[in-house]
Predict the structure.
Amino acid sequence: MTKARAALITTGLASLILAIAASQSQATTKTIKVGTAPGGAIPGKRLARLTPEKGHQLAAFSEGCFWGTEKMFRQVPGVTATAVGFMGGLLPFPTYEQAHTTGHAETVLVEFDPKRVTYKDLLGKFWTLRHPAEPSEADKHHPFRSAIWTFDNEELTIASQSLQAQRAKEHAPLVTKVQPAQPFYLAEAYHQQYSERTGTDACPIP
């Protein structure tokens, strides 16, 4: 075998190996799915017992209908799991109908990997979802009110600073509330990942 032919074969094998590796990498990327149990959330489990995967964090946002809000957060790289439910009301483990009459806000619970997406980045996404003209945001008991629920002092500080910055940007007294997270209650199964399961844009963010 000539040196030229040997070199050609070696080059061809190297190219084939690289192509296979690239294909496997793309396949792995495509199969990564966003989970459905942030913090290990399961029916009947209270907020105090929610525990994210090692190295992950939790965040919670209320912004109108939770179907559309959840869909948007599930598309953010670095978000590892989401679920929809209720927070901020008086009745434990409410049904969807009960939640709307007991002070709860429709809420999306998010688990994320801070090495891939920061909490500040998630807040930035939240502000793009907001509809500043939505009157229900000003009602502190409305199920579609706007709120950022924080899980520790660091999130509280970052979210408060983000709210002030957004107010300055919009030149408006935003009614979004930043407050410590309260017990989170999962909504019924048919609400979970609704847009993803049905392929519809139900309750889109305006």
About this structure: The longest strand covers residues 79-87. The helical segments are 3-31, 66-74, 96-99, 119-129, 153-170, 194-198. The chain is about 35% helix and 15% strand. Confidence is low (pLDDT under 50) at residues 5-31.
